[in-house]
Specification:
- The structure is a single chain.
- The chain is an alpha/beta fold.
- The protein folds into two domains: 60 residues, no CATH class; 164 residues, no CATH class.
- It contains nine helices and nine strands.
- The strands form three sheets. Strands 7-6-8-9 form a four-stranded mixed sheet. Strands 2-1-5 form a three-stranded mixed sheet.
- β1 and β2 form a beta hairpin.
- It is elongated.
- The protein binds zinc ion (ZN) (2 copies).
- The site of one zinc ion has 8 residues, from loops.
- It comes from Favolaschia claudopus.
- InterPro entries: Znf_MYND.
């Protein structure tokens, strides 16, 4: 199913399924299908059949995962988790201790399409697989120029801010291919009173919140409750 980004009116189509009959009982599986058209299941567009008979025979099996594909809106997802990703950027790049990391590094978030994992209405269209800090240099290999961001950062730094941080969202999928989306965060000031090491376990927290294991409103409470660095050092 297409991934869309409603924030910029982008629509990315899935590629079509391979020309193989989905039915396990298909008599022509080993001999090829002649010149017959391999029609797609009109409901899900994810599988093909060489004949109506094959489609009928496979239906008891196929109906378990055949669904009208949902629209996967990455723009809406990014907007919803904007504060979370911003926080992850600050923690992941350790900006409170080394603000200059914003110039050399970025945050990489790998996403999986939820419709590939489960059937029915998913609680969120994307699942975070992993989130990590990567050197900016790696982003150049996907053709992203750093210059505009450096320029913006210099301006922000001149005005007493931290800079412009980059979050890279990476959705890799057999049908839709690899999709990158970028999110820029202008960081004027860091949250007060949070000097010290990065929040321990920030990656786990980001995943848990975005994947629906922790309600968003609980995050702020968790962060307020986390032990200060001195307490943590004392308990070791
Ligand atoms: Zn067939
Ligand atoms: Zn189907």
């Amino acid at each position: 199913m297409p991934i869309i980004d409603s924030s910029i009116n982008l629509r990315i189509k899935d590629s079509k399924p391979p020309k193989v009959c989905q039915s396990l009982e298909c008599p022509d599986y080993h001999t090829g299908y002649g010149n017959r058209k391999m029609k797609m299941c009109s409901r899900c567009n994810v599988v093909r059949y060489c004949s109506n008979t094959c489609q009928r025979e496979d239906w008891p099996e196929h109906k378990l995962f055949c669904q009208i594909p949902p629209l996967l809106d990455i723009g809406e997802w990014m907007e919803m988790y904007d504060p979370l990703l911003r926080w992850a950027l600050i923690e992941g790049l350790n900006l409170r201790n080394e603000p200059s990391n914003i110039l050399s590094d970025a945050l990489l978030v790998r996403l999986t399409r939820m419709d590939r994992i489960m059937v029915g209405v998913a609680p969120t269209p994307f699942l975070i697989d992993s989130v990590c800090r990567i050197p900016w240099a790696k982003m150049q290999s996907i053709g992203l120029s750093q210059e505009p961001r450096l320029k913006a950062s210099r301006k922000i730094i001149e005005d007493g801010g931290v800079g412009q941080g980059l979050v890279v969202l990476w959705i890799s999928d057999q049908l839709s291919g690899t999709i990158f989306r970028f999110q820029y965060h202008t960081i004027q000031a860091l949250p007060p009173g949070e000097k010290g090491a990065s929040c321990p376990g920030w990656q786990k927290i980001v995943k848990a919140v975005a994947n629906g294991e922790i309600p968003v409103d609980l995050l702020s409470r968790m962060l307020e409750d986390r032990p200060s660095d001195s307490e943590e050092a004392a308990s070791i």
